[in-house]
Amino acid sequence: MLRTIFVASITFCSAAAIAGPRPGTPTIKPSPKQVLSAKTCSTLFGDASLHRKNEAARQKQLYFVDETADGVVIAHSADWTTPQRLRLLGLTLEATIKGRGALITVDAQTARRTGCKSGTYRVAVDHALGQNARVLAVLSDKILVEQGAALRYISGDKQGSPNWLMAWGSRYRVRVAAQSATINLRSPWRHRRLRGIRIIR
After folding, report:
1. Smallest Cα–Cα separation from 73: which of 139, 150, 159, 133?
2. Over the stretch 66-78, which tens digit does the pLDDT of each residue have?
3. Which of 5, 11, 44, 100 qualifies as a FRET site for 112, CA 20 to 30 Å off?
4. Rounded to whole angstroms, how far apart are CA atoms 60 and 39?
């Protein structure tokens, strides 16, 4: 079920874009010897340069993700629609870890193809997942991913899709010189030539 909420103006701090498990959610605490660092498999999970690029893109598009009793709220300024489930061949989500990311297992065939070790890796927000996907948020039992220009999610269970609540808010404002009031400008209009109106980023 999808409900879209149009928001006139959103000014939340982008640091809230990383959502962790709600209190009381069981988490797995694996032994450090059993978990590999994503740094050792940059072919799949990206390097530091790509992580910084992904972080900058996320902060421009994603205001926050919040798990509520009514569903998962995604507040954003992009052209995203409701996330669809994603299954990546050779990668399996094992668990999410509060405040530390997610555990993803790479199978032997994928490991050989990418030059990485097979095993379980700790993956965090802004890490890549293959060639065209990146982690946007870690939730209590799933991770939110952008693949190309579309939202996806990866879940370790077989339950149905959660109730996604999409909240859209523009990153742009316009100020009319002849008036003192400030009005909102939805981003698809930003390419129009508007006399007497200045776009404020």
Report:
1. 139
2. 999 899 999 999 9
3. 100
4. 25
